[in-house]
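Many introductory courses stop at the sequence. We go one step further.
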Amino acid sequence: MPIVHLEGIEKDYGTGDGALTVLKDVSLDIEEGEFIAIVGASGSGKTTLMNILGCLDRPTRGRYELSGTDVSKLGDDRLSRIRGKSIGFVFQSFNLIAQLSVLENVELPLFYDRVTKAERRRRCLALLDAVGLSHRLKHYPTQLSGGECQRVAIARALAVEPAMLLTDEPTGNLDSKNGEEVLKLFHDLHREGRTIVMVTHNPEIAGGLPRVVEMHDGRLSERVTESA
């Protein structure tokens, strides 16, 4: 069973004669352990598709199964719980909390999930070690480089042990060196068996992934590339 199963997904904004359909009959399966890029020009429907994949929005028509659960019509509370446990988000702007230390930022989703302090600490120390930041535990985001901030954000996304990592232009705010280091980390996570969906405008990044889907005028097409 795929982690993601989209079938006939459509999304309208507005109603009646003024309705604008921004996703048109989108169907897609993503298997466990895949690393897939979503590309497309501004206005192609890429962001809308990402929001639906991330359970931040619902389709107007069609079916979305996430880890076997149909999330298409769920209420806000249930959708929020599934989103919090099944999806790890990594954004271009990091979205770290400046008043919290590196360790506290990574622990935050587990705090909201009512994980015990000892288990939070154990899990997050291991994650920060894995992303090479065990020496920065007590530092604050303003004391870190952009690449370090993004690695903290990746560790935080992994803290809930999600079924899927959903990343939106994760190297967009980084220089080339830090961008390469963050991409290497994603490739390492993929080799460990993580499922990763990366939204990107960068053709070089997309070209380095084994699977690329492209949005154009609300429709989805696919091309297979040589793995980097």
